Amino acid sequence: MPVEVVDYDATWPKKFEALKLGLWPAVRDVALTIEHVGSTAVPGLAAKPVIDIDIVVQDRTRLLIAITRLTDLDYIHRGNLGIEGREAFLSPSDTVAHHLYVCLFNSPGLNNHLTVRDYLRLHSDAASAYGSLKQHLAQAFPRDIDGYIAAKTDFILKILQTAGFSPDALKAIEQTNKRSSVK
Q1: What's the rounded Cα separation, in Å, for the pair 80 and 65?
Q2: pTM score, whole prediction
Q3: Domain with 95 in it: what CATH number?
Q4: 39 close to 183: Cβ distance less than 8 angstroms
Q5: Domain presence at residue 28
Q6: Is residue 86 within a helix (H) or strand (E), and if so which, with residue range?
Q7: pLDDT in tens, 151-172
Q8: CA 57 to chain centre
């Protein structure tokens, strides 16, 4: 699958809301919230045209319930993909392109997603630089998602470092990005 980064699309928040509306009834009694994360959640930011969604749950019992309910909605559970506290899913083919995760509250994967999203929402200069980087990397790695992700890692780590992530947490994120495609 080609790596495609496009200019911001003002319909992305609406697409997220429609997906959330479809997911919420299945998880409303086990989820704390459903968050729009990733680059499509940052106004003005160039992104791959895929909505990233985190369903946040309080504990592992609720996480297991959410997994079962999402598979009943034709999501395919992929496991944690090397990130503890975050379970990934393939979305049904008849839906808007999206990545779905169920995350434990306060887990590293969730904290990473929320911190980067919130930082970029508050710092338009960083969002602009990140968008330019993503567009350049999509051209440099047109068919290599792992190379694309690895090449973005230093930028993301700088954001997380600025936001106060510990050196150990940053090292873990760097290692995870080397092992799996997370965005």
Answers
A1: 15
A2: 0.93
A3: 3.30.460.10
A4: yes
A5: yes
A6: strand 86-90
A7: 999 999 999 999 999 998 898 8
A8: 16
